[in-house]
Amino acid sequence: MNIDYGIIGQRIKEQRCKHTLTQEKLAEKLGFSVGYISQIERGITHINLDTLSKISLELHCDITYFLTGVNVAEKNFLNGELAEIFDSMNNSQRKMLLEIAKIIIKNY
Fold first, then answer.
1. What's this model's pTM, rounded to 2 decimal places?
2. What is the pLDDT of residues 45-74, one digit of tens each?
3. Which residues, other chains included, contact 38 with Cβ-Cβ below 8 Å and sequence gap of 6+?
């Protein structure tokens, strides 16, 4: 599996901007240089999990969001993926999925 550090960096930048933090402020809070934060956000530096964890704590964002683009803390985080699967099914598959869903709800 290839890791796309550019996308991870974009997600970090998105969250940093959402919290109205400059690269300078984030770097200061984490004890990193501004250049290092810039390189992470541009995908130049291959960020390690320890650093990613520190950034996620500072930005109050689950680390999985940076890696997958899915925020598991959101209540409806799977709705889009489920809708895509549902849309790709024919009517008999949809009926089968509905029956499976009813069984799951009834038993869990």
1. 0.69
2. 999 999 999 999 999 999 988 998 877 666
3. 23
Could you give the CA distance from residue 56 to residue 26 in angstroms, rounded to a whole number?
A: 11
pLDDT (tens digit per residue) in 23-42: 999 999 999 999 999 999 99
Q: Which tokens go with 64?
A: 């999985």
Spatial distance between the Cα atoms of 93 and 95, rounded to a whole number of angstroms? 5
| Of residues 32, 77, 35, the one with CA closest to residue 50 | 32
Angle at 53 between CA 52 and CA 59, to 5 degrees: 90
- Closest C-alpha to 72, from 82, 86, 61: 61
State how far the Cα of 102 lies from the Cα of 99, in Å rounded to an integer: 5
